[in-house]
Amino acid sequence: MKTTVAILLLSALALANAQSICKKSFTVTENYVEKTSALVGCTDAECTYAFSNPLVVGTSASGKTKAGDNIGTCTVFSSTAAGENRSYCMMSLKTPSGIINFGGEFPDFKNGDFTMPVTGGTGAFLGASGAVRCQVVKPGYTWTYTVSLTKAPTCASRRI
Ligand SMILES: *[C@@H]1O[C@H](CO)[C@@H](O)[C@H](O)[C@H]1NC(C)=O
């Protein structure tokens, strides 16, 4: 009986977490984690990194509601004297409801604010299109993404 209650409670929490981002528009924040990032390699001109960083719901880096992970690769093609990088990135927001793929030029600068296209999705986000606005909270460490899809995802009536 206690186990059933615990399982129901955990399912309800998982559902609440999933539903808070299974929307036409939502915001998540990514926090860089060193141990899940790796240098893929460098040429004379640029370096490429692969990473998987956790996402939380909302605009705060210390948000407590997990939203999934941002997984991707970035190729740094220029750097400023201050060590800020301009990259080309391809990324996947991996959420409990499905994946949203997006990417493009990524100027990882202080107060950076730019928009990248959504290129597709899976699960509730199958066939996704739209845009992802990125606001750089701290270059190299924290970024907020506001996803704006052209159509609502198909998760509202779905069990996860
Ligand atoms: C910028 O890129 C360089 C190497 O390509 C890397 O060592 C450095 O950590 C990057 N800086 C930030 C802020 O991510």
UniProtKB/TrEMBL annotation:
Signal peptide (residue range): 1-18
GO MF term list: allene-oxide cyclase activity
GO biological process, one term: jasmonic acid biosynthetic process
Stretches assigned to coiled coil: none
Residue ranges constituting the Allene oxide cyclase barrel-like domain according to the UniProt record: 64-142
Tagged with keyword Coiled coil: no
Keyword field: Signal
InterPro entries tied to this protein: Allene_oxi_cyc_Dirigent (IPR044859), Allene_oxi_cyc_sf (IPR034871), AOC-like (IPR041013)
Pfam families, sorted: AOC_like
Protein name in UniProt: Allene oxide cyclase barrel-like domain-containing protein
UniProt organism field: Chlamydomonas schloesseri
Lineage of the organism: Eukaryota, Viridiplantae, Chlorophyta, core chlorophytes, Chlorophyceae
